[in-house]
Amino acid sequence: MDLNVLQALFFPPEQPGGVSSMVPYITDRFTRMGWTMELFSLPKRVRGKGTQEVTFHTFDWRVFQGNPIVEKYIQTIRDYEWWTKLRLHQTVHVIHAHHPIAAIVMKRVFPQTPLIMTVHSSYEKELLLNERIEAGGTEEQFLTSIYGELEFVTNRLMTVSESFKSYMSNYVSEPQRIIVLPNGFDVKRFKPMAHDNAVPQLITMCRLVQAKGLDILLRACAILKQRGLPFVLHVIGDGPMRQSLEELARELGVYDEIIFYGYTLHPEEFMPFFDIFVLPSKAESFGNVFAEAALCGLALIGTNVGGIAEQIEHGVNGLLTPVDDVEALANALEQVMVDPSFRYELSRSALGKAKKAYSLHKVIRQLKAIYMEAAGVTES
Fold first, then answer.
1. Measured at the alpha carbon of residue 104, what is the angle toward residues 98 and 106, in degrees to the nearest 5?
2. DSSP structural state of residue 233
3. Domains plus CATH for the chain?
4. Each residue of 217-243: pLDDT tens digit?
């Protein structure tokens, strides 16, 4: 039986980000199989439209009332529900939500439709790492309470790494029921290319926020320059820290070695010409960009946290360094930069693992089984 599945996003699919870029490929694969799939999201222009009362099954959000972040979250639920009721009227067999607000609203609007939720990241951890909220404060208490609500309203609760499952387990009743399904990538999109750069070409790609540790990377680059090692660092992405990062690069004397591109469409088209992907994140639920860089044939350097540490086996398919350790990051970069043979072995191993572990074909097969189980149908 071919099913009709709704993929409920928060951001429109054209927005930058791992989820937004991945789900359209999933949709395309299922459409080729004869399934009906639709992408649904909240346009940025829809703000302040919803007025309905919001209640949860598992906690009373009103104890957090008056907090600006909580109030904005609740209003976004109202807006998403207003938009959903305005635009969605067709019957679907299964809804797959990719954001907590989408999941909560879909259960409110379509209570009888099987609902699957993939938790791709943690809003509260992002806010904490970017120093916008305090640990243990009102915002963190509210946002972590949402995990219990997701467990209540969904038929299947999924996430993208074992480390994030462990994190979520602190906030749900039956953590053993959480399914871990890593993100999948269409390997045909990525075309590794043999090349020989006289000067090592480093690349990082992310939203330019404090949680990504790019200030640590720039300081490590300053050490590399002090050691007399030539390099170019390509920074792909945009965000609130761009100006301060450019200023820091000037202060450290490495501005001439760094190119700030801003947000760039389809970086996989030029990434294969670089040598080393590096991103010293303070936390990552999965870290799509590491898998993408591996599929482009790059050597990987990341921090020993979350989904990064699940993708990289230190010394085999990449190098791991402690969070916020400038010296360790500089040493790892130097090790890979000065030894082309070691760099090649790391990149070859990373490519092999990514093809095997993060194949979109594998993910589609697993999702198909999950969708059919949720819909209560068997394959004929």
1. 80
2. E
3. 4-184+359-375 (3.40.50.2000), 187-357 (3.40.50.2000)
4. 999 999 999 999 999 999 999 999 999
